[in-house]
Specification:
- The protein is an all-alpha fold and 206 residues long.
- The protein has a single domain (2-197), classed as Alpha Horseshoe (Serine Threonine Protein Phosphatase 5, Tetratricopeptide repeat), CATH 1.25.40.340.
- It has helices at residues 4-29, 37-54, 60-74, 79-94, 102-120, 130-138, 144-156, 181-205; strands spanning 2-3, 99-100.
- It has a two-stranded antiparallel ribbon.
- Helix 2 (37-54) packs across helix 3 (60-74).
- The chain is globular, with a radius of gyration of 16 Å.
């Protein structure tokens, strides 16, 4: 079972991953976007870290709802609403339970990904964050590490795709040959989840 501290650790790990990779995310965004994906997410997850430090969220769901709300209010462009929707919907699906199972988290994330698809009007293959999130969440049924690897593979698979949604879609065939920054940052989010699970499970086994 995963408790509130697990989810706080996940968001903290996600913030650290974004901080570490912010320049790379912006570099990926430069040829096909507004060259601000890294800086926007860095601002957002820095605010998430501060919000969690100041707010005594007492359930896994409350942690994710707070994180999602913070991202929506601090991140410009499409990233804030999309990431905020993902985390808020996932948190709302988890409800007020003090602990959640891995399967409950998988189902909640599946609902969160569905909300992102509905908000953005996108589907896998459109060269968006869904190309990492959909296979990543599907692989959660195997393990957290499998989810992280599937999301990473999904992000890399966006390179030859033609963008059909988002800012990159305006470029037409010029979007081909570039890795989608949203898919890349989504893979970071699931990678942070896997790292948190590994650290927690190792600590509990020792």
């Amino acid at each position: 079972m995963r408790d509130t501290e697990f989810f706080r650790s996940w968001m903290t790990a996600a913030a650290a991953a974004v901080e570490r990779e912010a320049d790379r995310l912006t570099e990926l965004d430069s040829p096909i976007g507004d060259a601000d994906h890294g800086s926007n997410l860095l601002r957002g997850f820095t605010a998430v870290r501060a919000a969690l430090a100041a707010d005594p969220a007492t359930s896994p769901g409350a942690v994710l709802v707070l994180a999602g709300r913070t991202l929506i209010s601090t991140v410009g462009g499409a990233s804030g609403p999309l990431y905020g929707t993902l985390l808020r919907r996932t948190g709302k699906e988890l409800g007020e339970s003090a602990e959640v199972s891995d399967e409950e988290l998988r189902k909640a994330l599946y609902a969160g990904v569905g909300a992102v698809a509905q908000l953005g009007g996108a589907a896998p293959g459109d060269k968006t964050m869904l190309d990492a999130l959909v296979p990543g969440v599907a692989a959660l049924g195997t393990s957290y590490r499998a989810a992280a690897e599937a999301a990473q593979d999904g992000a890399q698979a966006t390179v030859p795709m033609l963008a059909r949604k988002g800012r990159a879609s305006y470029l037409g065939e010029r979007s081909i040959g570039h890795q989608d920054p949203g898919a890349t940052s989504s893979a970071l989010l699931l990678g942070a989840l896997a790292d948190t699970a590994d650290a927690t499970d190792t600590a509990e086994a020792s």
